[in-house]
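Researcher: Sequence recovery benchmark, item below. Answer with residues only.
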């Protein structure tokens, strides 16, 4: 048994002793749900705890623990769990006789569209229900606009669970492999990969395939791939190359949208994509997503187009409760922009530095990603890595997901369980702050890191 497997074994025993409901509920869930649930990321081993309440920076589980949460609804909950400003608006509307599904258009949709377009500097927008669908439609629009098939994406970038970009997400001796069974060979071969933050590789891909590329889809802030800011040079190069070769530049802002400012990151970089996609924060805790961008591309989903993209929506598209929650939240972010983002950034900086120093004091070398750069002021994100060598650069997913460079199991599995024993819940080696996280919460996190470091060291002896 290797050292992480040994550690996991002993941490799992402690976890089951402290979270008895987790095992009981998991056994019950497994009898009806594949692997005990409906979202793989939430089903961590040995058995996920079950929550019964969530408020602000914390959640409460079935064993009555108060747990400090850095996952925050897949990073959607920038105001923390169940912010009263949103729940109040929903309750008032629902008790007033509106808010559940109608399938008939209301003006709330236009109001929110106008607000979003103003904040994003885009010309047209259409709503959908998930980030995956938004990304899928953006790629279909790019294909229709260019009449080309090839899609360029970043190795390690997650663009949602739809067949058009299900390639090159997880690291298995590199990223160059399909991510799922059930894809057609064409779906796999039409996706090409490039390395994040590597303008040279981007140039090489465009030189080779540029005149066949429908689009380059990229996260201006790498999310699950490692919480890294794109370098300004990288995004400028992407803009120049897509212009030169006639490909559509798509910014996937599903994580970054309204996370760094009351708009998209494109505003801070001064690089305007042709299309961009949004979800998470813009839903205010409800399922809502959108594609926004240039009118001449977006127009391709209009019924007036003879050969159009069937971006027609589904039963729950532009659901009134989701629009209301999203609009209420976004209006608040716009109003309080000057206050919210600098505070989140400063707290983020304190969090990452504090975590690095805490582990160093305990004799364990860790490095956090999530720091800003010339374009992006500090972020509210942090990911804790265990690089095998000090000083390793961590600027692209190839570095933080390669087990030869960083101890990935230690970050993804061991740290997660060790911190849960300290009542702190993290995803991918930490997560995101909300406006509800406080200085005291950071002290809780640092104390938890001391506990986790000691558990890890004790387990290694
Ligand atoms: C960058 C990015 N794009 C797309 C998606 C897919 O969004 P959704 O989970 O809403 O389908 C995600 C989800 O985590 C994401 O982080």
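Model:
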């Amino acid at each position: 048994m290797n050292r992480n497997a040994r550690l996991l074994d002993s941490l799992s025993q402690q976890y089951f002793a402290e979270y008895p409901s987790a095992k009981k509920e998991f056994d019950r869930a497994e009898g009806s749900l594949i692997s005990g649930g409906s979202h793989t990321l939430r089903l961590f081993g040995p058995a996920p705890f079950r929550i019964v309440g969530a408020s602000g920076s914390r959640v409460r589980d079935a064993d009555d623990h108060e747990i400090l949460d850095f996952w925050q609804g897949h990073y959607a909950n920038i105001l923390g769990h169940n912010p009263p400003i949103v729940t109040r608006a929903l309750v008032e509307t629902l008790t007033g006789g509106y808010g559940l599904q109608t399938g008939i258009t209301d003006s709330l949709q236009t109001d929110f569209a106008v607000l979003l377009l103003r904040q994003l500097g885009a010309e047209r927008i259409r709503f959908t229900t998930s980030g995956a669908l938004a990304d899928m439609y953006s790629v279909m629009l790019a294909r229709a606009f260019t009449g080309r098939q090839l899609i360029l994406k970043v190795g390690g970038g997650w663009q949602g669970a739809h067949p058009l970009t299900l390639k090159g997400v997880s690291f298995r001796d590199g990223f160059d492999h399909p991510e799922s069974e059930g894809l057609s060979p064409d779906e796999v071969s039409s996706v090409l990969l490039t390395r994040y933050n590597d303008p040279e590789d981007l140039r090489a891909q465009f030189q080779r395939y540029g005149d066949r590329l429908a689009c380059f889809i990229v996260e201006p802030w790498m999310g699950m791939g490692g919480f890294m800011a794109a370098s300004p040079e990288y995004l400028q190069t992407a803009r120049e190359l897509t212009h030169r070769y006639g490909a559509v530049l798509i910014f996937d802002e599903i994580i970054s949208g309204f996370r760094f400012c009351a708009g998209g990151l494109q505003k801070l970089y001064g690089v305007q994509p042709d299309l961009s996609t949004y979800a998470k924060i813009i839903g205010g805790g409800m399922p809502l997503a959108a594609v926004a961008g240039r009118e001449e591309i977006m127009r391709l989903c209009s019924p007036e187009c003879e050969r159009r993209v069937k971006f027609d929506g589904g039963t729950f598209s532009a659901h009134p409760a989701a629009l209301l929650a999203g609009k209420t939240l976004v209006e608040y972010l716009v109003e309080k922009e000057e206050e919210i983002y600098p505070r989140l950034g400063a707290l983020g900086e304190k969090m990452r530095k504090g975590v690095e120093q805490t582990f160093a004091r305990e004799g364990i070398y860790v490095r956090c990603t999530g720091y800003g750069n010339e374009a992006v002021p500090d972020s509210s994100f942090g990911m804790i890595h265990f690089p095998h060598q000090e000083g390793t650069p961590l600027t692209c997913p190839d570095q933080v997901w390669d087990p030869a460079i960083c101890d990935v199991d230690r970050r993804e599995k061991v740290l997660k369980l060790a911190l849960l024993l300290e009542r702190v819940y993290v995803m991918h080696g930490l997560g995101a702050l909300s406006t509800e996280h406080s200085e005291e919460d950071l002290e809780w996190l640092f104390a938890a890191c001391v506990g986790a470091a000691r558990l890890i060291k004790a387990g290694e002896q």
